[in-house]
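Ligand: EPU. Inputs:
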Amino acid sequence: MEKLIIQGNHPLNGEIKISGAKNAALPILAASLLSQSSIQISNIPHLQDVTTIVSLLGQMGANITLDERTNIEVNASQLTSFHAPYDLVRTMRASILVLGPLLSRLGEAEVSLPGGCAIGTRPVDQHLKGLQAMGAEIQIERGYIKAKAKQLRGTRIVMDIVTVTGTENIMMAGVLAKGQTIIQNAAREPEVEDLANFLNTLGAKISGAGTSTIVIDGVEKLGGGCYHVLPDRIETGTYLAAAAITSGKIKLKNTRPDLLKSVLVKLEEAGAEIETGIDWISLDMKGKRPRAVNVSTAPYPAFPTDMQAQIMALNAVAEGSGSITETVFENRFMHVQELQRMGANISLKGNTAICTGTPDLHGAPVMATDLRASASLVLAGLAAKGETVINRIYHIDRGYECIEEKLAQLGARIHRLP
Ligand code: EPU
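Predicted complex:
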């Protein structure tokens, strides 16, 4: 199994480009099942999760052309299957995103229940409840969600909790439904808005995406079009945290500072000097050790759960103590024990981690447990003295494009052991 080897304790310095957002590319690719015309999507990141959803669309009969850059053409005019098998879905929970489009387009969908997850139980009850309210008949049989609806009908849906893919699934189902669908207590994440912008490019009538009430007026069919996926705010935040933790200075291009205000505020609190333009962010720690920060995760626009592990790594080397409270997922602290193996001083009380920083984090062999936990171990490895070996890095390849190349471009001493 591949490993990442890092020789730490060197400040990052330089410029890199940020890739397209994984969590926008995945729903956008799933949503392309709704159209019978040809669609070109650019700024798609090269990631394992993208490969998985492309395989899933291929199995359904969609015709997919990839070029060697970041462009994908999807033509889903001839769908031959509404079945999303366990073998693919279990490797990526976001596969649930094909449920709404398949049901809406074909009147039937069979999608495996995603099963266990390292960061929490992650049920899909809100997805199913919304689709049922739109007239779908849903049964769970032998681990599969079996959904049928001759014609979905628009209705008012009040989500019990804020869910990103739940909002996206219902929004996609509403596009070809009869009448108006209103989603209240919708997720406001920029990726939800990007999906709505993509669908509107194809002829959908969605308004309010990016707010907590989304209105979808059903249309008969969608056409084709071209769309450029928005930049990855979590990849951006991860590299900024990497520069801060190593007391470095970097500039990130092809990104959107307006999408990560809550993260930039915390990095400034940690002592970083940040400058922004429309599509770039620079961070300078001026060779200083960061200060510990207090963070509580919550849905957008609050501090993202997908940046929690990386900020924990920052607190692990910072001056002073900081508390991190995770309110979105119930078990997203798997990185704590691995960080402790590198010398971090972290104690857990319920869903809060209190961390007192040490300037003496040391390299160690560690194990990645999920995508963002892996990122936090890479960050800790960059700051630690000596060598860190990160095992099970397939997690990181799910969400960070060419991570070792990008870090090496910033001067990190990192390589992959095949
Ligand atoms: N939840 C329910 N019922 C549902 C749906 C969600 O109880 O029907 C709960 C979840 O268990 C969780 C909370 O609601 O406690 C929020 O989960 P949400 O549904 O918003 O998460 P998701 O849509 O499955 C997306 C991202 C995650 C990100 C979360 C939160 C994608 C493909 N995934 O997941 O990204 O952490 O929103 O922002 O968009 C990652 O990129 O590393 C990642 C895990």
